[in-house]
Amino acid sequence: MAEVRIGVAGAAGRMGRMLVAEVDRTPGARIAAGLERPGSNGAGSDVGEVAGIGRRDVAIVTDPASMFAAVDVAIDFTAPEATVAHARLAAEAGRGLVIGTTGLTAEDRAAIAAAAAGAAIVLAPNMSLGVNLLMGLVEQVAATLDPDYDIEIVEMHHRHKVDAPSGTALGLGEAAARGRGVQLAEAAVRSRDGHTGARERGTIGFATLRGGDVVGDHTVVFAAGGERLELTHRAGSREIYARGAVRAALWLAGRPPGLYDMMDVLGLRQAGSR
Ligand SMILES: NC(=O)C1=CN([C@@H]2O[C@H](COP(=O)(O)OP(=O)(O)OC[C@H]3O[C@@H](n4cnc5c(N)ncnc54)[C@H](OP(=O)(O)O)[C@@H]3O)[C@@H](O)[C@H]2O)C=CC1
Ligand SMILES: O=C(O)C1=N[C@H](C(=O)O)C[C@H](O)C1
After folding, report:
1. Which of 48, 47, 44, 94 is nearest to 69 (CA)?
2. Suppose 76 and one of 9, 38, 161, 237 were both cysteines; which one would form an S-S bond, judging by CB atoms 3.0 to 4.6 Å apart?
3. Nearest CA to ligand 2 atom 10
4. Where do the CATH 3.30.360.10 domains begin and end in the chain?
5. Given the DSSP bridges, would you call strands 73-76 and 4-9 parallel, antiparallel or unpaired?
6. Bridge partner list, 92
């Protein structure tokens, strides 16, 4: 089978550089394009040189349409506004798209879902196997325990992260809410400050920590009178996200249009759950 030609949007970013290196070492995949915005550090440079793996004779372009023209599937870890624009272009070009960008609004997600009518898109706030397994466990525990068990989600990331709570924390909140049979938008308490009053039964709380070079830690706490259950994932390297994203890109090649997630890619979806 021919190699899948993969493009990386945000090729000079923390994840972009990891992704280029991961594509390059993955059998069946070939790095075919990089994208940055005009004026960005990496624009015009060679993707391989920017990723620290040596020259690959593939330039980082600044025109997203030309990236899509050169690839079968693009991987996008950029910023919400760019990601929504790229999803529309993927639909116009009929190319696959793997989206790792977080901090998306409900409107952004709706725009991506609309684009998925014309393109096969994988959208997931966390591409690692461990976190996706954790999501399934959290849903199962939340379905088992009654609302006397208070659910709190704690996350910590590096000092450069711009969105909060993390996309993964919100995804874990969605999993907990699904398990409980409630809507996260109604149950979520995304921050606390000042005289908040006592905790309301059935709510799902979030706490955000930022500092240093922490790659990504997430803990879901189920706390009741007399006991506390804590489920934790700690990322030691961004490689786990890059590996998952490239796996998703290969999985997408040749798939029909639609909106998929990592549960689909990893074969973890339970019948009836989403
Ligand atoms: N789903 C997952 O598994 C993971 C998701 N993420 C998410 O991925 C995103 C990126 O994270 P990270 O790599 O740390 O961030 P960085 O800021 O290091 O990288 C983002 C890159 O995208 C570029 N970019 C921004 N806008 C555009 C545009 N319009 N066209 C092309 N390139 C653009 C940025 O350029 P410039 O600097 O010029 O703005 C930058 O080089 C975040 O939302 C993060 O939460 C991160 C890790 C794992
Ligand atoms: O910005 C990051 O670094 C990460 N972002 C994702 C998120 O918001 O959940 C995934 C991972 O935790 C790293």
Report:
1. 94
2. 9
3. 126
4. 129-235
5. parallel
6. none
Nearest alpha carbon, ligand 2 atom 1:
161
Give me the active site residues, please. 157, 161
Q: Which residue has the tokens 């391989």?
A: 48
167 is in an annotated binding site: yes
Ligand 2 pocket member 166 (CB < 6 A): yes
158 marked as part of a ligand binding site? yes
Distance CA 187, CA 69 (A): 43
DSSP single-letter state for residue 76: E
125 marked ligand binding residue: yes
**CATH architecture of residue range(s) 129-235:** 2-Layer Sandwich (3.30)
Q: Locate 65 and state its tokens.
A: 């349409």
Q: Name residue 49's amino acid.
A: E
- How many angstroms separate the Cα of 271 from the Cα of each of 98, 265, 267? 23, 15, 11
State percent of the chain over pLDDT 70: 98
Is the domain spanning 4-123+238-266 CATH 3.40.50.720? The answer is yes
Region of 10 (left: φ > 0; alpha: ψ -120 to 50; beta: rest) is left
How do residues 117-142 score in pLDDT, each as one tens digit? Answer: 999 999 999 999 999 999 999 999 99
Cβ of 161 less than 6 Å from ligand 2: yes
128 CB within 6 A, ligand 2 = no
The per-residue pLDDT for range 161-187, each reduced to its tens digit, is: 999 999 999 999 999 999 999 999 999
Ligand with minimal distance to 122 CA: 1
In sequence order, the β-bridge partners of residue 120 are 258
| Element holding 35 (H helix, E strand) | strand 29-35
- Quote ipTM for the complex: 0.99
